[in-house]
């Protein structure tokens, strides 16, 4: 079932610039669609038309079968979670107050808001005491977690994420991507995720829509984008190291065994992708890594399993990373 549907949507500005041109696509319920492309391709405009921050010039945008033109704009925006790169937390309000903004606007009682804030702090793995802190007392990564929690506070069916991890350092960004993927597995929410980073798009999306000049050039699974790019533009945008990027579409949980023999090696989580695991193997002489979830050993991932993933994909030639891992 489609949760979000675009039908021949166009956005033309007053100066005649067409940012989005006759766009049609759908996002199924519970699916994550990443929109990726160069600057000016229309990806952010497309996302902002979903919650009517930018009005469409032509065409129809529907959420759960209802045209947004038939919805009250304020109610529409309150029903959709929204996470941006700049986070947008209010510095004069505590973490708990920031998370509870939309539920408060929706008229939730204080006990319900407090319980929801506690649930979300636990979900994003921040101590309950942090609810009393102010954003300035948190790290960048913690503030971004709070931004995600605030977007989820009112249990939205749809979550929009506009380069949410783009301002973070690479290590924190990778960590938060993994954490969000784990959180996402516990939620029933449809996500549109905008990024300029093809690696992030491939990692975070069930489907990836590559955009250019206000239109979608290709919308497919990450594996298909890598193995069968529809045009030269898509191939060039993905880049030459497609064999290595392919590893980002496979998680540790997809390949690990249940073996739990003791290992003196760095641990990984089930939600981490094999690209991260390959980097560990490339930088060490380890042949196996323990897989740990919530402090408990749940399995093992091996150097050989990483090789099998690459060698088993004939479209990637079975070369490159597999020779060196």
TrEMBL record:
GO terms for cellular component: plasma membrane. PROSITE patterns: ABC_TRANSPORTER_1 (PS00211), ABC_TRANSPORTER_2 (PS50893), CBS (PS51371). It catalyses: tungstate(in) + ATP + H2O = tungstate(out) + ADP + phosphate + H(+). It comes from the Archaea. The complex is composed of two ATP-binding proteins (WtpC), two transmembrane proteins (WtpB) and a solute-binding protein (WtpA). It comes from Halogranum rubrum. It is found in: Cell membrane. The keyword Hydrolase does not apply. Part of the ABC transporter complex WtpABC involved in molybdate/tungstate import. Responsible for energy coupling to the transport system. Residues 4-238 form the ABC transporter domain. Its EC number is 7.3.2.6. Keywords: ATP-binding, CBS domain, Molybdenum, Nucleotide-binding, Transport. It is an enzyme of class 7 (translocase). This is Molybdate/tungstate import ATP-binding protein WtpC.
């Amino acid at each position: 079932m489609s949760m979000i549907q675009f039908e021949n949507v166009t956005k033309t500005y007053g100066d005649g610039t067409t940012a989005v041109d006759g766009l049609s696509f759908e996002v199924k319920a519970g699916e994550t669609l990443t929109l990726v492309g160069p600057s000016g391709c229309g990806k952010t405009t497309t996302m902002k038309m979903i919650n009517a921050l930018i009005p469409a010039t032509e065409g129809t945008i529907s959420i759960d079968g209802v045209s947004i033109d038939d919805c009250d704009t304020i109610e529409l925006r309150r029903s959709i979670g929204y996470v941006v790169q700049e986070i947008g937390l209010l510095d004069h309000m505590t973490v708990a107050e920031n998370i509870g903004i939309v539920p408060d606007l929706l008229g939730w009682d204080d006990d319900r808001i407090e319980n929801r804030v506690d649930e979300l702090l636990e979900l994003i793995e921040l101590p309950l005491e942090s609810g009393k802190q102010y954003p300035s007392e948190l790290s960048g990564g913690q503030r971004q977690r709070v931004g995600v929690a605030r977007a989820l506070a009112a249990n939205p069916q749809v979550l929009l994420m506009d380069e949410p991890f783009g301002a973070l350092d690479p290590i924190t960004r990778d960590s938060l991507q993994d954490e969000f993927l784990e959180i996402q597995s516990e939620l029933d929410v449809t996500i549109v995720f905008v990024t300029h980073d093809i690696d992030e798009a491939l990692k975070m999306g069930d489907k990836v829509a590559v955009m250019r000049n206000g239109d979608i050039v290709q919308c497919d699974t990450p594996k298909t984008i890598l193995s069968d790019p529809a045009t030269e533009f898509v191939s060039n945008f993905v880049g030459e190291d497609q064999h290595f990027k392919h590893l980002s579409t496979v998680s540790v949980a997809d390949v690990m065994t249940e073996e739990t023999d003791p290992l003196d090696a760095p641990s990984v989580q089930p939600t981490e992708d094999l690209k991260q695991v390959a980097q560990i193997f490339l930088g060490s002489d380890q042949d196996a890594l323990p897989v740990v979830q919530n402090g408990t050993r749940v399995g093992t991932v091996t150097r050989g399993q990483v090789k099998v993933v690459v060698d088993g994909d004939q479209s990637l030639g079975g070369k490159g990373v597999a020779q060196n891992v």
